[in-house]
């Protein structure tokens, strides 16, 4: 798929901007704090309705304005689609071909993006919370039901935790009520678990082979799911439901003392092993980078496998984070395969690593200038 055009209104430091893109490589060049990341972010938000660097959508609105709008025109195998995403004081509004979408889960998935930014090293080094967020965002893109079930799960979890806290005051509890909550939690939680396990199986297959390539056969990467439940291979959703019910019951006493829910997907994590060693704890900086890169590239192949076309790739300042060899490998991977948007402070270092002629956009303080007028396909 590709993004042909984007139009921004009151978005961060862009008043009003319309850009037409090349179906291949688009490069945003400029000094710091000019608006390069803002551009990539706007594409990300158009796809996922959330920013990768802020939890508060209102930050996207230009300081003295009361709404921000992103409009994108995309081409997919089955035709062209117009997407609109508006943020205002009243919240978010999304449109597909001009029609307002009532649920975000209906909207997300039309445009698939993979973003790779320096912070993505946190995928390996960061907290479990970061890795769960990664899982949730990526699965949400290929499975439209996922975010819906996840949000139900989180709602029930919150209710259960609130109830557990209340029992401390009341010094008694209603075991039937807890059963009802457990059952709802297991319903939603088993969906979340099942989807995550499926996703990781696909991810690991691709990450493993890409990592082998990048390390010239020297390293073997394994990706696995670390659960608070004792999972065995190939469990059905039904089996996961029963397992979750059992475990919730088993830990109920501990939950009642600690006043929180100790088992379930909200406590799970991802583990990366290179040549049998946990990269999080034992990996060198280089191995951690290669691992993060392999996982990101794996996602690209995974999306292609799942939905039948390549997503859009957003690379924010990553070249400066990778050594020359990895930069070349990354560029070789992209080749002509998928539409890519890349930010950099200097194009001179870039040119010798590229096989494709990039479309260059110079970004200066919320204004963008393109080097050539027409897009060559
Ligand atoms: N809501 C906003 N309204 C107006 N300007 C903003 C807003 N949010 C960020 N900016 C401006 O955007 C600029 C940063 O843009 P960014 O894309 O991060 O830069 P870079 O080119 O380094 O990637 C800063 O000058 C900042 O003041
Ligand atoms: Mg930036």
From TrEMBL:
<comment type="function">
    <text>The RecF protein is involved in DNA metabolism; it is required for DNA replication and normal SOS inducibility. RecF binds preferentially to single-stranded, linear DNA. It also seems to bind ATP.</text>
</comment>
<comment type="similarity">
    <text>Belongs to the RecF family.</text>
</comment>
<dbReference type="Pfam" id="PF02463">
    <property type="entry name" value="SMC_N"/>
</dbReference>
<keyword id="KW-0227">DNA damage</keyword>
<keyword id="KW-0235">DNA replication</keyword>
<dbReference type="GO" id="GO:0009432">
    <property type="term" value="P:SOS response"/>
</dbReference>
<dbReference type="GO" id="GO:0003697">
    <property type="term" value="F:single-stranded DNA binding"/>
</dbReference>
<keyword id="KW-0234">DNA repair</keyword>
<protein>
    <recommendedName>
        <fullName>DNA replication and repair protein RecF</fullName>
    </recommendedName>
</protein>
<feature type="domain" description="RecF/RecN/SMC N-terminal">
    <location>
        <begin position="3"/>
        <end position="351"/>
    </location>
</feature>
<feature type="binding site">
    <location>
        <begin position="30"/>
        <end position="37"/>
    </location>
    <ligand>
        <name>ATP</name>
    </ligand>
</feature>
<dbReference type="GO" id="GO:0005524">
    <property type="term" value="F:ATP binding"/>
</dbReference>
<dbReference type="GO" id="GO:0006260">
    <property type="term" value="P:DNA replication"/>
</dbReference>
<dbReference type="InterPro" id="IPR003395">
    <property type="entry name" value="RecF/RecN/SMC_N"/>
</dbReference>
<dbReference type="GO" id="GO:0000731">
    <property type="term" value="P:DNA synthesis involved in DNA repair"/>
</dbReference>
<keyword id="KW-0547">Nucleotide-binding</keyword>
<dbReference type="InterPro" id="IPR018078">
    <property type="entry name" value="DNA-binding_RecF_CS"/>
</dbReference>
<keyword id="KW-0238">DNA-binding</keyword>
<dbReference type="GO" id="GO:0005737">
    <property type="term" value="C:cytoplasm"/>
</dbReference>
<dbReference type="InterPro" id="IPR027417">
    <property type="entry name" value="P-loop_NTPase"/>
</dbReference>
<dbReference type="GO" id="GO:0006302">
    <property type="term" value="P:double-strand break repair"/>
</dbReference>
<dbReference type="InterPro" id="IPR042174">
    <property type="entry name" value="RecF_2"/>
</dbReference>
<keyword id="KW-0963">Cytoplasm</keyword>
<keyword id="KW-0742">SOS response</keyword>
<keyword id="KW-0067">ATP-binding</keyword>
<dbReference type="InterPro" id="IPR001238">
    <property type="entry name" value="DNA-binding_RecF"/>
</dbReference>
């Amino acid at each position: 798929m590709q993004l042909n055009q984007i139009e921004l209104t009151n978005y961060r430091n862009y008043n009003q901007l319309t850009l037409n893109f090349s179906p291949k490589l688009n490069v945003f060049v400029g000094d710091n704090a000019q608006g390069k990341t803002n551009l990539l972010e706007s594409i990300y938000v158009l796809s996922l309705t959330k920013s990768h660097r802020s939890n508060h959508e209102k930050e996207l609105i230009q300081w003295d304005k009361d709404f921000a709008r992103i409009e994108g025109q995309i081409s997919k195998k089955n035709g062209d689609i117009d997407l609109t995403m508006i943020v205002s004081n009243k919240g978010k509004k999304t449109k597909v071909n001009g029609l307002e979408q009532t649920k975000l889960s209906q909207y997300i998935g039309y445009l698939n993006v993979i973003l790779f930014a320096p912070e993505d090293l946190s995928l390996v080094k960061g907290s479990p919370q970061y890795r769960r967020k990664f899982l949730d965002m990526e699965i949400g893109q290929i499975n439209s039901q996922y975010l819906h079930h996840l949000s139900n799960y989180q709602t029930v979890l919150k209710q259960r935790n609130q109830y557990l806290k209340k029992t401390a005051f009341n010094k008694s509890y209603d075991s039937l009520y807890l059963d009802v909550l457990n059952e709802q939690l297991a319903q939603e939680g088993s969906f979340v678990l099942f989807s995550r396990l499926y996703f990781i199986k696909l991810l690991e297959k691709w990450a493993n082979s890409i990592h082998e390539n990048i390390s010239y056969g020297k390293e073997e990467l394994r990706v696995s799911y670390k659960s608070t439940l004792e999972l065995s291979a190939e469990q059905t959703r039904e089996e996961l439901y029963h397992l979750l019910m059992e475990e919730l019951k088993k830990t109920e006493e501990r939950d009642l003392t600690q006043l929180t829910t100790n088992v379930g997907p909200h406590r799970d994590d991802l583990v990366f092993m290179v040549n049998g060693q946990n990269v999080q704890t034992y990996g060198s900086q280089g191995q951690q980078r290669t691992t993060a890169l392999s996982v990101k590239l794996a996602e690209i192949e995974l999306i292609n496998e799942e939905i039948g076309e390549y997503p859009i790739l957003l690379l924010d300042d990553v070249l400066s984070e990778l050594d020359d060899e990895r930069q070349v490998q990354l560029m070789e991977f992209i080749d002509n395969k998928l539409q890519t948007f890349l930010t950099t402070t200097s194009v001179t270092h870039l040119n010798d690593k590229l096989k494709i002629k990039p479309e260059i956009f110079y970004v200066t303080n919320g204004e963008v200038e393109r080097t050539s007028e027409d897009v060559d396909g």
